[in-house]
Request: fold
Amino acid sequence: MLWMKERPGDDLVVRGARVLDPAQGIDAVLDVRIDAGVIAAVGETVDANGHRVVDATGLVLAPAFVDPHVHLRTPGREDEETIASGTAAAAVGGYCAILAMPNTDPIVDSAATLGSLADAARREAEVQVGFLAAITRNQEGDELTEMGELADAGAVAFSDDGVPVKSAGMMRRALQYASTTGRPLALHCEEKTLSRGGHVHEGRVAAELGFAGYPSVAESVMVERDLSLAAYEEQPIHLLHLSAAESVAALRRARDGGVRASGEVTPHHLCLTDEAVRSLDSNVKMNPPLRAERDRLALLEALRDGTIEAIATDHAPHARHEKEVPFEAAPFGVTGLETAFAVLYTRLVEPGLLPLETLLERLSAGPARVYGLDTPTIAAGATANLVLLDLARTHVVGESGFRSRSPNSWLLGETLTGTVAITVAGGAVVHEG
Amino acid sequence: MSQSSIRLVNDDLRPPGPPPRRHCISIADMTRDDVERLLGTARTFESTMDRQVKKLPTLKGHLVVNLFYESSTRTSSSFELAAKRLSADTMNIKSSGSSVDKGESLKDTALTLGAYDPDVIVIRHPEIGAPQLVARVTEAHIVNAGDGKNQHPTQALLDLYTIQQQLGRLDGLHVAIVGDVLHSRVARSLVQAFALVGIRCTLVGPPALLPREMPVESTTEIAAIRDADVVYILRMQQERMQAGANYVPSLREYTARWGVTPERLRPGQKVMHPGPMNRGVEIDPRVADSVDALIETQVRSGLVVRMAVLYDVLTGGPVGVQALTAAEVA
Reply:
C-alpha cells in the first residue's frame, strides 16, 4: 500500500510535449489534460477547459518514476532524512512513488512501527510512499517477523536490506511463509564471511590502495543460493542493488529457467567503477561497492535486455560529519533521488549506450511490476503520475542545494543534462523546476 | 514541503582535487625526478652527519607537528630528530592522552592544530586517506607517516636510499618482497617506488596474503627469493590478523614455509626489513644478525631521508648551500 499527504488533485493541461509511455508503446506529440488529478484527455489537441496550460513544446512527458529502494532514515535518524524531506527529494527527481527500506532504528518489524510510519506518510509525504517490513525480527536472522499482520498493515514486501539473511534454512522458511502474504522478498545478497568488513571491490584498486577487499563473489554466491531456494520453493524474489557480472549471469539463467526472480541496479553502479575510489572521496563508498568495468558493462547489458527490470537509487542519506572522515571510517551509502534521471540521461542515453525509452521503462513500469504496484501510465482515466522532462536543460548538482537533508551525493558539482520540469504524483503537482 | 533545504556553503565536500601545496602523501604522486631529487638531498644531509655539531639552521622558525594515531618507535623518533636536526620547532601529539580519547574527529583535531599555523604536519593514522583529509582542512604541508594499509612513502624512500648506498645503483636490480603483502603499506609504497626507478619486484608469500590483481609478479614459492639481489622481509603483522581469519594455518607453519633462513638465501644476498622484526617468525635470527642484513642502515637512512622530505616539502627544491651552514646554531 502507498500513502501520501491528502491534497486535492490539480487541473492542468500539458500542451505539445513528446508523450513517451514505453509500457503502452506511445511516442507522439500530444496534449494531455488533467482534471482534478485524473488524466481526462490525451490527444492531438485537447480543450484546455479553462485549466492552466503548460507549453511543453520540445519537452518529454513520461509516466513518473518509481524508486523501489530508498532509505528514509525515519524512525531514528530524522537528522539525516524524514518522510517529508525524502519524498520532497523524490518529487525533485521526478518520482511519483518510492519504497522505503525497513533498516531504521527501530527496525520496521512490527505492525505498530509500520502503522506509525503510515500515519506520518499520510501527514507529510509529498509523493506516494510505501514501506517494506523486515524478514526477520530486528533483522537479526533468527526469527521470522509476523508477516501476515505486517502485510495487512500495508507492507509492500519484506526485506532485511542492509544485511543478508545469513542462514539458508531461515531463507527457506521466509520464502515459504511469505507466500501466504502474496508479497515478494527483496534480498540483500552478501556472504559476510567473504565480504569480511571490506570497503572496496577486491580488485586492482583495492590491492594498490590497501583497502580490505569485498569480492564480487561475496554477492554472487548469495545470489546463487537465493535463486536456488526461490526455484525450489517456487516463490518470487527480488535481488537488490546488483553489482557483479556473475550475479547478473545467475539471474539471467534463473529467469530463463522459469524462476520468478527480478533484479535492480543503481545509477552509481551503472556509471562508476572502483577506479572512482582512487579519489578517496567518501561519497563513492557504498555497499555493494563499485566494481570493475566488466561488471558495469554486464549490468548495463542486463538493464538493456530486461534481465534487470528496475533502476533503484538506494538513496542512503548520511549526516555530513559522518561522511567527512577518512574513507574507511565513513558509512556506506550515497544519495540519489534528486539526480538519478539526469545522471543516467547524461552518462548513458546521450552517448547512445541506452535508449531513452528503456531508461524511462526501467525507472517506472519496471519497478512497479516488481512489487505489483499500479503502473504509472498516460491514459485517460488514470490518476496523473507524470514527469515532464527538459532534455536540453543542464544543471549543476548541489548548486541550489538539496531537498534531501543529506548532501552525500557522488555527483556534487557535476553538470548534468536532463532536468525535471514538472512532477505530478497522485494527481498533484509536487514539483516545478 | 520539507522543513529545510541544505545549501552547500563551501566546497569541502567535493572530491579532493590535486593538492595546491607540496605534500609527501603517496609515492603514486611522485615522478622519478622527485625521487632522485629527494635522494640527492638526503645524500647532501648525510655529508653533514659526521660534523661535531650536527644541527643545521635550515628550518629555523618552522613548526613541525607529529600527529601519531598509531604506536611507532622508529618513524616518530626519526621524524622528530629530523625536524630537530633542521632546527624546526616540533610538537608531538599522540592519540592516547589527547582529545582523540574524548572522541574528537580527525577533522576537528586537524583544525585545532591548524590554528597554530604549523608548516608541516606529519601524520600516521590507521585509516586510508587520513592525510588527504588533513591536507584539505589545514594549510600545512602534509607528510604521510603511514595511513592504514595504503602508503608509507618515507619508508620506501629510505629503502631506495639504502639500496642505492649499499649496491651502488637502483636501475636493473631485482628485489623480492616476502610475507604479509596484503596488510603492508610498506609493500604498497615499495612496489610503486621500485617501478619508478626501474627495480624489478617479485612478491612472495602465502596466497591469502598476496592481494589479487596487484600489478606486479607474485608467487607463493619461497625459492623465488634466491633470484633477487635484495630480499625485503615484511613483518608478519599479528595485530592485523583478525581472529580466525585463517590467512595461514599457524605462525609456526608460516615460519616453516616462508620464514627467511640462511639456507633459503644465496651467500651475499642483501636482506632488509622495515621493523619491528619478529625474530624467529618471518626472519631467522641468524639472518637478522648477519653482515648482509641492512636493517640498522635502513634506520640511519631514515633520518637523512626524512630531513630531505621535510626540507623538500617546505622549500620545493634541491638543497642549497645556505641550508648547510651550521654556524650560528651551535
Observations:
- Chain A has a mean pLDDT of 97.
- The CA atoms of residues 20 and 27 of chain A lie 5 Å apart.
- The first strand of chain A starts at residue 12 and ends at 21.
